[in-house]
């Protein structure tokens, strides 16, 4: 096996359309609840651009996933999910490796931020937004955050990329939010009830919420938002919206959602639906750019104040925010600093106070030694990007054989990977719904896991008949139809002893081979960080040169 | 062939060239790996259904030929399309806005400074050929010429924005500041402009200097220089009246070629200093496969090159009868 670092673009093209890779290593990305299970493992997602890009197809898992998505009781649902994980850990379309954790450089004079899985400055981390404050100023401090590039959208529906989503989450409210242990908490909805058949969800809203243009926020706006989502030609939040039948209001502060079928994650999904003002959005389309027609008007803790497209956005505290005493900050400025070292320098001088994303591994050492920054232990949260090694289940018989994949799993030292690739700032994941991210409730004490044991890996391959017949350091496929029966016999003659020694040395070289594979994987990981950047630069240069040469020759003729 | 026919022929050539550039731009960005809808769905929350709908919306599921003819048709109507990445925003608004002004100011000022300094130093070094002054100028200019511009930019950033905090670290204007009047705004803008301008000026200087020095040395071997000397003119008169004037002609042609830089910008420098210009827009758009924006920028660049060249040719033909004669033959 050979590890080749590809740029993201090339790799994605293969995953989306070509589907002819054999093994790849990449990160997927989690939502605050295990929404990734259905797209990654349901056979309905085996298609061009589908999320099940390893083509994992198991009718039993499909049925269980459908069942879990309809199961309203958390305990029962979690047990179904455990069962699914056990089956998948046996079939093994991918091996979970680790999450790349968020460790932030934050000036030490700032307090009140909340570390939750996914990071301090993640879009669903609304607690940081409302609680962040200066140590000497409970209210009114000016916080400046560096972004690597400008937000893509002013439009809250499309603002799903991490950069836009954080700004959207500060300006707009959702019905529900998450706390630091990933439990659902009230937000615009003070409480909610789900009927026993799961077909009716009733939300009660806070009564003193106002839009930033001083219009009261009512149940009509919530109904409008859901109807708006359902009425567009490009669908967003499909799993939720496609299952909603209709919405009605009961008075100004109660919304009743009628579901077409029970959906286990309905309330969770509402965390991702920014409530939009009906009086502004009525008659608009999903791709209304908002800018430059109007400043985004929301109901959230911060109001849009001013901006310079491409450079900065200044948000000011919403003094009429419905939550008592929040937010603490006076202004929240987002500032674009393209280059990662320039961002770090800006944090060091105090020109900005933190940045949106985690520290580049290159600056971790310097940041740990900087007395002006908060200790890194305090800003270290489990990351939302989960890295894995995936096996294409389409054609290679070796990769369809669970034994091979299990042996590979046993041969991977995940701790060492985290140490090398993330300088230790990563969390090893053993299951498909790791409790370190999704919360201890998802911890299955009996989950199938694969410890690091190269010897065992080799034994498993030997037993399954993957032998290195021609002694070139690479194991061959077992002959078809041949059942391997290993019999361990103590060597009696000199020849047998020699044979046993040879076997052992082959096995050792195999181990070395596995180690080299591991190292090359780590290199590939590091290379990936740079290669996409380099390739983009290279392509731009080539494009420019080709265009200029073509123009030149055309002129000459 | 008369002058009018010559102009007509050059214009026709230009139109054909632009058409070729348009076609090349279209193909080039589409054979590049990557998928524009990835930029949208890079976020795990975006569902496959959303992505498929976007692909259909952008027309990316149609045959390439069909896409090409739709593009040409829209182009003829003066429609450059809508950005894939900032959905809903017309390409023309993105390109012909503040970003273009920022780039023209940055590139224009740094090229102007490098041009003036390069010419002066080039004439002087050529005059003092072989002396220590000449050699130190050559070494300096070779060093700055071959130095990676982003590296020099990072050094400037480290020294002037970190150790001695005199220049701002990023942007074109202080974020969130409301300027009382235009003078204050201009002062703030210039303050932000300094570091990237110095970086680019230094990187351009070497090229102009070496070019000017070589041209002057060529001119020195001409007979009219001997004549000038024989007439007993002062050194200053010989240098600036006779040598420099003649050496400036190829220099001006060179500047003509460099006009494209005004628009294409300097991706590296703009990125290091977070200067919000077209160079950085090209970089971001390549990364996100934003075909319409890329096609728009490169179309502008092609048009600019072609027009600049036609104008230069026509002016030259008008001024220099030899070219007209050559065209007649």
Structure description:
The complex is a heterodimer of chains A (557) and B (329). Chain A has 557 residues and is of the alpha+beta class. Chain A folds into 4 domains: 8-101 and 384-463, no CATH class; 102-172 and 300-379, 3-Layer(aba) Sandwich (D-Maltodextrin-Binding Protein, domain 2), CATH 3.40.190; 183-290, Alpha-Beta Complex (Dipeptide-binding Protein, domain 1), CATH 3.90.76.10; 494-556, no CATH class. Chain A is 36% helix and 16% strand. Chain B is mainly alpha-helical and 329 residues long. Chain B is 77% helix and 0% strand. Chain B has helices at 3-31, 36-41, 48-58, 64-76, 91-95, 98-127, 132-146, 149-163, 182-220, 223-230, 235-258, 261-264, 267-272, 278-287, 291-319, 321-328. In chain B, α10 runs antiparallel to α11 (235-258). The mean pLDDT of chain B is 85.
């Amino acid at each position: 096996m050979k590890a080749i670092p590809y740029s993201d673009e090339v790799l994605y093209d293969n995953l989306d359309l070509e589907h002819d890779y054999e093994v790849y290593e990449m990160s997927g990305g989690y939502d605050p609840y295990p929404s990734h299970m259905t797209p990654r493992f349901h056979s309905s997602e085996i298609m061009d651009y589908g999320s099940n890009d390893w083509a994992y197809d198991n009718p039993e898992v499909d049925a269980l996933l459908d069942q879990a998505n309809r199961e309203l009781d958390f305990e029962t649902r979690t047990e179904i999910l455990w069962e699914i994980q056990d089956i998948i850990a046996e079939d093994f379309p991918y091996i979970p490796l680790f999450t790349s954790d968020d460790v932030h450089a934050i000036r030490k004079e700032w307090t009140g931020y909340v570390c939750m899985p996914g990071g301090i400055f993640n879009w669903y981390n609304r607690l940081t937004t409302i609680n962040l404050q200066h140590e000497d100023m409970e209210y009114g401090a000016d916080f400046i955050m560096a972004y690597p590039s400008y937000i893509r959208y002013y439009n809250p529906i499309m603002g799903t990329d991490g950069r836009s989503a954080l700004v959207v989450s500060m300006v707009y409210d959702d019905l529900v939010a998450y706390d630091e242990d990933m439990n659902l908490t009230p937000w615009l909805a003070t409480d909610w009830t789900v009927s026993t058949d799961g077909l009716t969800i009733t939300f009660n809203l806070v009564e003193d919420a106002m839009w930033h243009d001083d219009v009261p926020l009512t149940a009509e706006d919530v109904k409008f938002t859901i109807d708006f989502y359902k009425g567009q030609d490009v669908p967003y939040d499909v799993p939720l919206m496609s299952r909603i039948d209709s919405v009605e209001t009961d008075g100004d502060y109660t919304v009743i959602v009628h579901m077409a079928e029970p959906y286990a994650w309905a309330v969770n999904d509402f965390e991702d639906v920014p409530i939009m003002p009906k009086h502004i959005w009525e008659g608009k389309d999903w791709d209304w750019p908002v800018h430059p027609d109007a400043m985004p008007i929301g109901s959230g803790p911060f109001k849009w104040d001013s901006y310079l497209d491409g450079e900065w956005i200044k948000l000011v505290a919403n003094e009429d925010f419905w939550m008592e005493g929040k937010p603490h900050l006076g202004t929240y400025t987002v500032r674009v600093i393209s280059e990662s070292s320039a961002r770090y320098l800006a944090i060091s001088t105090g020109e900005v106070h933190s940045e949106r994303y985690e520290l580049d591994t290159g600056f971790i050492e310097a940041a740990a030694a900087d007395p002006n920054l908060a200790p890194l232990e305090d800003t270290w949260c489990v990351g939302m990007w989960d890295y894995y090694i995936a096996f294409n289940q389409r054609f290679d018989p070796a990769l369809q054989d669970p034994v091979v994949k299990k042996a590979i799993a046993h041969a991977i030292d995940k701790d060492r990977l985290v140490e090398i690739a993330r300088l230790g700032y990563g969390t090893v994941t053993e299951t498909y719904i790791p409790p370190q991210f999704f919360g201890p409730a998802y911890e299955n004490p009996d989950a199938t896991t694969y410890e690091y044991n190269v010897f065992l890996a080799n034994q498993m391959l030997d037993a399954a008949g993957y032998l290195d017949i021609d002694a070139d350091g690479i194991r061959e496929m077992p002959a078809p139809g041949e059942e391997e029966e290993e019999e361990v016999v103590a060597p009696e003659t000199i020849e047998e002893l020699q044979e046993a020694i040879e076997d052992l040395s082959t096995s050792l070289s195999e181990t070395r081979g596995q180690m080299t594979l591991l190292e090359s994987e780590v290199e590939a990981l590091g290379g990936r960080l740079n290669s996409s950047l380099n390739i983009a630069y290279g392509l731009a240069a080539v494009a420019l040169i080709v265009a200029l040469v073509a123009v030149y020759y055309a002129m000459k003729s | 062939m008369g002058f009018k026919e010559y102009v007509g022929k050059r214009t026709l050539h230009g139109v054909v060239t632009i058409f070729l550039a348009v076609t090349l731009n279209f193909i080039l960005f589409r054979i590049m790996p990557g998928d524009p809808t990835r930029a949208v769905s890079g976020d795990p929350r975006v569902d496959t259904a959303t992505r498929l709908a976007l692909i259909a919306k952008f027309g990316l599921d149609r045959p390439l030929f069909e896409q090409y003819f739709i593009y040409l048709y829209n182009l003829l109507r003066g429609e450059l399309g809508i950005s894939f990445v900032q959905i809903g925003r017309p390409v023309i608004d993105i390109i012909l806005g503040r970003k273009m002004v920022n780039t023209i100011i940055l590139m224009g000022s740094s090229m102007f400074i490098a041009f003036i300094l390069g010419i002066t130093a080039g004439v002087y070094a050529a005059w003092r050929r072989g002396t220590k002054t000449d050699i130190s100028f050559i070494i300096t200019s070779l060093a700055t010429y071959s130095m990676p511009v982003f590296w020099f930019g990072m050094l400037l950033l480290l020294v002037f924005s970190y150790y001695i905090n005199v220049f701002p670290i990023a942007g074109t204007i202080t974020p969130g500041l409301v300027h009382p009047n235009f003078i204050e705004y201009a002062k703030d803008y210039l303050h932000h402009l300094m570091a990237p301008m110095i970086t680019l000026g230094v990187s351009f200087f070497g090229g102009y200097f070496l070019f000017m020095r070589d041209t002057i040395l060529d001119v020195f071997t001409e007979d009219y220089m001997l004549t000038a000397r024989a007439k007993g003119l002062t050194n200053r008169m010989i240098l600036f009246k006779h040598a420099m004037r003649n050496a400036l002609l190829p220099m001006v042609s060179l500047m003509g070629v460099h006009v494209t830089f005004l628009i294409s910008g300097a991706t590296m420098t703009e990125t290091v200093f977070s200067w919000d210009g077209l160079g950085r827009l090209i970089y971001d758009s390549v990364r996100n496969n934003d075909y319409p924006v890329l096609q728009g920028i490169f179309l502008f660049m092609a048009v600019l090159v072609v027009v600049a060249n036609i104008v230069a040719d026509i002016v030259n033909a008008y001024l220099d009868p030899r070219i007209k004669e050559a065209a007649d033959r």
